[in-house]
Design a protein that fits this description.
Layout (H helix, E strand, L loop, with lengths): L1 H25 L4 H18 L5 H7 L1 H4 L5 H31 L11 H5 L5 H6 L6 H17 L8 H25 L1 H4 L9 H4 L4 H19 L4 H23 L3 H9 L2 H10 L4 H23 L3 H7 L4 H5 L3 H22 L4 H20 L5 H9 L1 H17 L1
Helix pairs in contact: 1-2, 1-5, 2-3, 2-5, 8-9, 8-15, 8-16, 8-22, 9-12, 9-13, 13-14, 13-15, 14-16, 15-16, 16-19, 16-21, 19-20, 20-22
Enzyme class: transferase
Catalytic activity: 4-hydroxybenzoate + (2E)-geranyl diphosphate = 3-geranyl-4-hydroxybenzoate + diphosphate; an all-trans-polyprenyl diphosphate + 4-hydroxybenzoate = a 4-hydroxy-3-(all-trans-polyprenyl)benzoate + diphosphate
Family: Belongs to the UbiA prenyltransferase family.
Length: 404
């Protein structure tokens, strides 16, 4: 912006000098006009160089000692020189502006426990599945745990074996989802400051190797799935279509966070099915809906980290779509999610400790919404990570409502 202002001012002064040359050449210039020309010339020379060239000194004293003849010729020569200097200045400013608007160099990759513990040859793969960022696994696992706890018999704790299986399954499916996402987004991630060091975007993992690695993850996930009942196997396998399609939603709709909610909360259906061999839709659909609403809250906050880069590369999000009204929408989603949770708990007959847990979790969610600075990447990331607390509070409320 400053460079553009300088170019406009310099162009105006150069134009004045050229007009002076024409006026003097025709003999119509007055002494006052000559003085104005000298001032314009001084301004043009000052823009062109930090030192004072001989012609600038000559121009500044032109009124006192300008020649009686040849004024027009002199100023035409001076104007040509000033115009050349102006053109050089414009070119330099344009080059500087172009350089400043170029992509910021990729930041140094964050050093995490993965870099210290995992063998160096495996670090890119560990980072591809976000092993160094466990919050994603937790957000995928909590709806599974809620459903398993909700399906438990009255007075009983949730099945520990199923909790363990679903925990491992969440880790594997989240890793597979990240791999699919990074394969889709490899030509976009390297244009976004936060993601340009991701393994595929940076070239640390090639596309063929990433596809082979994805196959290995899905094979391990299948090993978990086959330990469930037949109904759960079919229901669980059907979620892969959502996992594969999610990255495309960021290019198609302003609501990819809603689609992520459908994907990430599939465990709210699957957990109950793993316990009972079928779904009681009166219990699991409200639970599923509450999870989708929750995802709309936390992933919209998450998307605000990248909103400026996303706008440049054509990625859609609720963060961009809601804009300044984001917090109003987040509040509405939080209320809808709480209502759905209460409906699910009431359907299965949970007692008052459940509602205490839900109220506490909802308070935490509204604290996030009220205090998050949507223009501060670090604060958005911190609030996003705090959603594991919300998931834990809801889980504790369901267990307490069953046991007490």
């Amino acid at each position: 912006m400053l460079a553009a202002a300088r170019r406009r001012a310099s162009a105006a002064r150069a134009s004045t000098v050229e007009a002076c040359a024409r006026a003097l050449a025709s003999g119509s210039a007055t002494r006052a006009r000559a003085s104005a020309c000298a001032n314009a010339a001084r301004g043009t020379w000052a823009e062109a160089s930090t030192s004072t060239p001989p012609r600038a000194a000559h121009a500044s004293s032109f009124v006192a000692r300008r020649p009686r003849t040849g004024d027009g010729e002199y100023f035409r020569s001076f104007a040509a020189s000033a115009s050349t200097s102006h053109s050089s200045r414009v070119k330099a400013d344009e080059e500087a502006s172009s350089a400043s608007s170029a992509a910021t160099p990729a930041p140094e990759a964050e050093n995490t426990w993965v870099d210290r513990v995992v063998p160096s040859s495996l670090v890119p793969y560990a980072k591809l599945v976000r092993l160094d960022r466990p919050i994603g696994t937790a957000l995928l696992a909590w709806p599974c745990f809620w459903s398993i706890a909700l399906a438990a018999d009255a007075g009983a704790l949730p099945d520990a074996r199923l909790l363990g299986l679903f925990g491992v399954g969440a880790l594997l499916l989240r890793g597979a989802g990240c791999t699919v996402n990074d394969l889709w987004d490899r030509d976009i991630d390297n244009k976004v400051s936060r993601t340009r060091n991701r393994p595929i975007a940076s070239g640390a993992v090639s596309v063929p190797k990433a596809i082979l690695f994805l196959g290995a993850q899905l094979a391990l996930g299948l090993g978990v799935l086959v330990q469930l009942n037949d109904y759960s196997k079919i229901l669980g396998a059907s979620s892969l279509a959502l996992v594969a399609a999610y990255p495309a939603m960021k290019r198609i709709t302003n609501y990819p966070q809603a689609f992520l909610g459908l994907t990430f909360n599939w465990g709210a259906l699957l957990g109950w099915a793993a316990v009972h061999g079928s779904c009681d839709w009166g219990a699991v659909l409200p639970l599923y809906a509450s999870g989708v609403a929750w995802t709309l809250v936390y992933d919209t906050i998450y998307a605000h980290q990248d909103k400026h880069d996303d706008a440049k590369v054509g990625i859609k999000s609720t963060a961009l779509h809601f804009g300044k009204d984001t917090k109003k929408y987040l509040g509405a989603f939080a209320l809808a999610g709480t209502s759905a949770l209460c409906a699910s708990g009431a359907y299965v007959g949970l007692d008052y400790p459940f509602y205490v847990g839900v109220a506490t979790a909802t308070s935490h969610l509204f604290w996030q919404i009220a205090t998050v600075d949507l223009d501060d990447r670090e604060d958005c990331a911190a609030k996003f990570r705090s959603n594991s607390t919300y998931g834990a509070l809801v889980f504790a409320g369901i267990v307490a409502g069953k046991v007490f």
